[in-house]
């Protein structure tokens, strides 16, 4: 993998805990109901997710959020209709994994500010949700002209020595690329394709 | 999928037949023996393959060669140690799917020349064969510092109205991207990752 920005070792980063962040919906059906409501109000939903790569023992790993000891997702989330993909992704990353300004000690905030901010780089993958169900595809299937959601995945550059604040109900894992490869059964097809995306 | 070159409909292209091209090795063990011999003579083998995309009924399809009604492969092949990836890929494409200059009628050669040549664009994926066996990975696994083969996959731009000459023992298929998606069981992990690679 070659990037036009540096990839740093995992041990350069510090992780602290922040307050729990509950999922906005309690069930899949609640989630789909909200998607339908949003679609009727403001059209296709837009999401942005971050592909953040670090090295560990010299091998590339991807940072992945695990919610409630259950499912895995890339950091990021839904955008407000007024947000651009790039700005919205930075906002979601700060909400999800940023050091909370109201509760963190000043020295930590200062150190984190010194480290610098994440930078959104190339869009490396785009996924469509053609229907009001849970399936996304890396293309818009034939005969589907009105996707319900579009999700863009961006490479995100991590400045050296950044501090992550991980919500208490989540875990942040660094998963080696070989663990994701050809492993849609465990991680789903989006994650299983990350090695291909990173291979160029 | 967005490319910085035009993607043309399948029906713009004409396919004729050319002489059979037998595989260089008759069995997997023969193939691995040859790889070992080449490795001892000239080090890591290099291969280049072409990701050629056309539209059909408005949907992206990938051109895939099927050998002897059996396995599928992308057009391309091994490079000589002196060939660059880009020039070698053009040579392999002309040997495999080009109109043969010695046997084709002049009007066909003229029409094909007028259409223009394939153009090698971005390298979109890199695969490593770490051992003397049949497995390739889109990364070099940890503890493997001397891969036996590296394979680069390039987007290849197809000029409108190009003529393909397909060897009599092969078929050239245009496979829709949705057929490859999440289908490593049928097409293998390289093909199953093509939708991810094309999704950006």
From TrEMBL, chains A, B:
InterPro entries documented for this protein: Cleav_polyA_spec_factor_su5, NUDIX_hydrolase-like_dom_sf, NUDIX_hydrolase_dom
Domain Nudix hydrolase: residue ranges: 44-179
A GO biological process held by the record: mRNA 3'-end processing
Keywords: Cytoplasm, mRNA processing, Nucleus, RNA-binding
Major location category of this protein: nucleus
GO molecular function annotation: mRNA binding
UniProt keyword Cytoplasm present: yes
Cellular localisation: Nucleus; Cytoplasm
TM region positions: none
GO cellular component, one term: cytoplasm
Protein's job: Component of the cleavage factor Im (CFIm) complex that functions as an activator of the pre-mRNA 3'-end cleavage and polyadenylation processing required for the maturation of pre-mRNA into functional mRNAs. CFIm contributes to the recruitment of multiprotein complexes on specific sequences on the pre-mRNA 3'-end, so called cleavage and polyadenylation signals (pA signals). Most pre-mRNAs contain multiple pA signals, resulting in alternative cleavage and polyadenylation (APA) producing mRNAs with variable 3'-end formation.
Record family assignment: Belongs to the Nudix hydrolase family. CPSF5 subfamily.
Quaternary structure and interacting proteins, as annotated: Homodimer (via N- and C-terminus); binds RNA as homodimer. Component of the cleavage factor Im (CFIm) complex.
Protein name (record): Cleavage and polyadenylation specificity factor subunit 5
């Amino acid at each position: 993998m070659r990037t036009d920005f540096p990839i740093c070792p995992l041990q350069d980063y510090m992780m602290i805990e922040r307050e729990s962040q509950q999922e906005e919906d309690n069930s899949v059906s609640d989630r789909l109901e909200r998607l339908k409501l949003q679609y009727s109000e403001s059209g296709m939903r837009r999401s942005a997710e971050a592909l953040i790569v670090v090295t560990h023992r010299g091998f590339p790993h991807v940072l992945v959020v695990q919610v409630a000891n259950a499912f895995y997702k890339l950091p990021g989330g839904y955008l407000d209709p007024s947000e651009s993909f790039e700005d919205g992704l930075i906002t979601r990353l700060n909400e999800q994994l940023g050091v909370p300004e109201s509760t963190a000690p000043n020295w930590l905030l200062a150190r984190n500010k010194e480290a610098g901010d994440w930078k959104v780089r190339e869009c490396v993958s785009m996924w469509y949700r053609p229907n009001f169900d849970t399936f996304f595809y890396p293309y818009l299937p034939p005969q589907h002209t009105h996707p319900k959601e579009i999700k863009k995945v961006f490479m995100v550059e991590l400045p050296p020595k950044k501090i992550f604040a991980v919500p208490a109900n989540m875990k942040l894992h660094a998963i080696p690329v070989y663990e994701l490869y050809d492993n849609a059964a465990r991680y789903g097809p989006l994650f299983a394709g990350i090695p291909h995306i990173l291979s160029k």
